[in-house]
Amino acid sequence: MSDGRRKVTLVEVGPRDGLQILERILPTDDKLAWIEAERAAGMRHFEVASFVPARLLPQMADATEVVALAKALPGLEISALVPNVKGAEAAIAAGADVLVVPLSASEAHSRANVRRTPEEMVAQVAAIVGLCRVADRPVRVDAGIATAFGCTIQGAVPEEAVLRLAADCVTAGADSLGLADTVGYANPDQVRRLVTKVRAEVGPFLKGAHFHDTRGLALANVVAALDGGIRRFDSSLGGLGGCPHAPGASGNVATEDLAFMLEAMGYDTGVDLPALLAAREILARLLPGEALHGKLAQAGLPKSFPILEQRVA
Question: What is the domain count for the chain?
Fold first, then answer.
């Protein structure tokens, strides 16, 4: 029976966004062990791979196998990043439930990242939607709007460019949209303002947000996005991740820190925090020598947790 708390969905993107930035290649079995450990902690949504050429991202060479193995675990929704129709075809064949198409509001970042303009990427969204509509099972298309809050190459990104891209993605048939602070430029006031404007433009299609903690503002930005009605957040265990076009980026908001904050605020993430910290310990053993980020693992859960009186309907 539900306890009446407000639901928030966390999407673990570490197996994709976290691993693709590392020099080492994590074996397929270790990726699955990571996913299984977080599943045991209550996580149910995972972005596990990018369907791109192995010569460009050797860390994702086993994308097909990872998606298929993750889909075999009961109760999971499995997402994959697909920058083009070819990648979408492969991801659908592998069994992915959700195809995340990366578009950038910054034309400079778009050309550097996917070698297409934002307008050309909208055409890819439309083509990928067409593939999904004739698939033999439901497959959702999520448009991830990168550099929505700024770009290390271009600098400032006009809010009008984000609004236009969001509207174009909805017209192209995307099932939902997410705003991404790809390079860690966002601040809470900016997040509140842009979320409000995008929601006014596309309404309920705006579902998610993706924040990097490059300058220590990821959790504050999550709170700002919550104020704007966002209830789906990407995160990465141990704060793994980064962007090849964001020098010094320290990675995504840490899943364990985000889950702790949300639970303490009275939201229901479905996550067992001690089990999630145990999963982080497993990840540390799988990635010896790699720096993991986040504060909860350092300090531990407070004795006052769970703070039941703070949990409101």
Answer: 1
CA atoms of 140 and 50, how far apart (whole Å): 16
Active site residue 132: no
Domain with 280, as residue range(s), is 6-310
What pLDDT was estimated at residue 4?
76
**CA distances (Å), 117 to each of 17, 32, 165, in order?**
22, 35, 11
For residues 99 and 79, the answer to whether their CB atoms sit within 8 Å is yes
Polymer length of the chain: 313
- At 277-304, the pLDDT tens digits run 999 999 999 999 999 999 999 999 998 8
Which residue among the candidates 132, 151, 169, 243 is catalytic per the annotation? 243
User: DSSP state, 254?
Assistant: B
Residue 258 lies in a domain: yes
pLDDT per residue as tens digits for the range 105-140 = 999 999 988 889 999 999 999 999 999 999 999 999
Contact 147, 157 (CB under 8 A): yes
Residue 61 lies in a domain: yes
DSSP 138: -
Query: For residue 88, what is the domain's CATH number?
Result: 3.20.20.70
Collapsed DSSP state (helix, strand, coil) of residue 166 = helix
Residue 306 in this model has a pLDDT that exceeds 50: yes
Ordered DSSP codes for 190-240: HHHHHHHHHHHHHGGGEEEEEEB-TTS-HHHHHHHHHHTT--EEEEBGGG-
Asked whether the CA dihedral 258, 228, 3, 40 is positive or negative, the reply is: negative
Which of 84, 24, 75 lies closest to 46 in space, CA to CA?
A: 75
Structural tokens at position 168: 């174009």
